Amino acid sequence: MIPHDDPSPGPPCAEAWEAIRREARLLDPETDAGLEELCDAVGDARVVLIGEATHGTHEFYALRAALTRMLITKKGFSIVAVEADWPDAFRAHRYAAGQSEDSGPAEALSDFQRFPLWMWRNSVVAEFLEWLKTHNRKAALAREPKAGFFGLDLYSLHSSIGAVLDYLDKTDPDAARGARNRYRCLGQFGPDPRNYGRAAVLGEKESCEEEVMAQLIDLMARRQDLITKDGAAAGEEFFSTEQNARLIKNAEAYYRSLYQSHRNSWNLRDSHMFEILGQLLERERMAGGKAVVWAHNSHVGDARATEMGRQGDLNVGQLARSHFGDGACLIGMTTFSGSVTAARDWDDPAEHRRVLPARPGSVEALLHTVGMPAFWLDLRRKNEAAEILGREYTGRAIGVVYRPETERWSHYFHTVPARQFDLLVHIDHTRALQPLDGGAVWRERSCPDTFPSGE
What we know:
The chain has 21 helices and eleven strands. It has two domains: 1-77 and 290-455, EreA/ChaN-like  fold, CATH 3.40.1660; 154-268. α3 runs parallel beside α6 (123-141). The chain is globular. The protein is 47% helix and 14% strand. It is α/β, with parallel strands linked by helices. The longest helix has 24 residues, at 234-257. The chain starts with 13 loop residues before the first helix and ends in an 11-residue tail after the last helix. The strands form two sheets. Strands 1, 2, 3, 4, 5, 6, 7, 8 and 11 form a nine-stranded mixed sheet that branches.
């Protein structure tokens, strides 16, 4: 984030916004007008990463879902990989695949119990999940590939342990006993895995690194035997169990790293997300599998184009570009003002909050001057607009917590947009995402915040 004494550049000159306007391609998030051209701009990419400047903006979620539907139906994408924990998302995947008894998408999303609930338990994701179920039903009748919904994140240490043990209890009770013995190492500190991380780093307890690694290796070595025992859904159920075991291994390291280095913990998390993405793609390699990634701009945009990279952080977008080259397409989304669903602090209730107009000198303020409600730019082209966006600006990042009173220092960072993304979507005024579990707080606090500025 930018330092307190960071100077803000003045307003953009007319030549700048006029050059951008000439290259801007109109979008209508309400009707999806212009979306097909955006989809075509993806080209032959095997991995399309779609970002968002906040975790609580309706238009970002809706446009991302609409573009993903088009990528699935027009370009044969079969993997939707999201910034969510594997076991929670896998229940939703089962629903979309027609393999669950959940009565509807809201129930299929009910394993999402951890803050922030609204990030995945919201109206847009529920609607997308229902569409995906219908799509997969038609695909099965036509003997065409189905599409899946999977989680990339690593916060579900204890529920992933439960999922591994449940699977082994059904398929190999002896192996389940061995797994319980290994995972017992992680279960001595209550439900919050940060307690384990703190104890391990302070030397109050030996780390469980060897135990979780041994369990993953053992599971992978028993793959063929376990698949044989598991019946009709053998391959997918084993694959899910293997990813949970991989998550446990990486989460163990992540929670220790929280008490060692912020940079190391961030890099471990994004490396884990890219590792799971690689597992999903490898599983469908013979079928030419292609993946859409849903995550925040901070994960999707190439870290090397931002101050994150200068500080030694990496992210999924950087790893995707390094690994896939032109086979990865990085799409960012920004907004100038509006409202957002966010909390005042971690674990606080969701609130309907006003988003301050973007600060002068930010890329959002520059795009606002273009004077179009919604548009997108192809930053890969050699033109004056790409040259202008190849300079350094500040950019805004709102996650699940929004603090307008400290916005300048807590939500802005330095970035070169044309290096951070391949395609950039700007929706000038946006509204808050509707949670499935909005509750009284989300409704009662729907009035604007009182902060007049982000100073």
